[in-house]
Write a structure and sequence with these properties.
about 170 residues; mainly alpha; about 80% helix
Length: about 170
Amino acid sequence: YNSYLRGMPNTKPAYSMKKYLIPLFCMMMMPWISMAQDFITLNNQFIALYEKGDYEAALPVGLKALAQGKKEFGINHVNYAIAADNLANASYKLGHFSDAIFLFKDAKRAYTAAVGDAEIVEVGLCNNAIGNSFYNLEKYDSALQYYAQAYHYFKGYPQDQYANLMAAASN
């Protein structure tokens, strides 16, 4: 140790410091490691912002929720589908219709993969939302195609989905 202080080469003090620096570094990093948020927390934050009508603030949180949903569950899981659907709705509300179409299609694919059946209400709702997005982009032929798919789904369940059937039929 004395030779180190006098400027003479000695690796022993530096080597012995490593055994203290690594645990110290790990302890310093713990607050940042624990700051990583899980899907449920991010999705709940998104929902709170969305319900307040703060779509601009909800969008980046929704992107984080989508990425975290992919990381935690994969792209063929219902939680990933929910995140894509939520993000699509925020994009739609902000007038980002092309982004909304992409995200609604991704949500539709994920819902179908997660459940193993395309005949679920969420897929019908995605089809209707895709139709609305195309309509707002003045791509009426594409809109009609998705409205027809939504109508086809909802007419099979008129008791449970009467309001959605009427929305799809009116489009």
